[in-house]
Amino acid sequence: WELPANPEAYLPCKELRIPGNHPLAAVWEDNLAPRVLDILDSKGVQWTSMDAARIGVEEEYFAPVQVVIWIGIKPDTLSGEDGLAVAKECKQVLVDDNILDVEVEARVSLIDGAGTT
Predict the structure, then answer these.
(1) Burial status of residue 79 (CB atoms within 10 A of its CB: 0-12, 13-18, 19 or more)
(2) Angle at 101 between CA 98 and CA 104, to 5 degrees
(3) 4, 27, 36, 77: most buried, per Cβ within 10 A?
């Protein structure tokens, strides 16, 4: 992250991308995702979503982009300290399976139920 150079500066627009051809794709759904969810549940994390994604800068489409496990957390339910501990434990699951270039990040996320019956 770079601090904007002046008061009129804007942060770059970012976009979500699919992980694509990455070793995580072969083991995520049936192996790693359930293990990460087990960690979240065992720690009492009030999560709303979990996605494997690339988060890139819009203007740099062809630049290499980090793959992340992006976990949505209900607002005001997890301290920064506890969030860091959970993220490190989730990262260890990836490392144990030799997925070394994927990070774990959290975001505040709400599900509004729109479209459900």
Answers:
(1) exposed
(2) 100
(3) 36
pLDDT tens, position by position, 57-95: 877 777 778 899 999 999 999 999 999 999 999 999 999
- Tell me: pLDDT of 115 over 70: no
Specify whether the CB–CB gap between 40 and 89 falls below 8 A. no
Strand extents, DSSP E, 1-117: 14-17, 47-57, 67-73, 102-108
DSSP symbols for 34-64: HHHHHHHHHTT--EEEEEEEEEEETT-TTS-
Neighbours of 106 (CB within 10 A): 20
Q: pTM for this structure?
A: 0.80
CA distance 23 to 4: 35
Query: CA-to-CA distance for 111 and 30, rounded, in angstroms?
Result: 24
Size of the chain in residues: 117
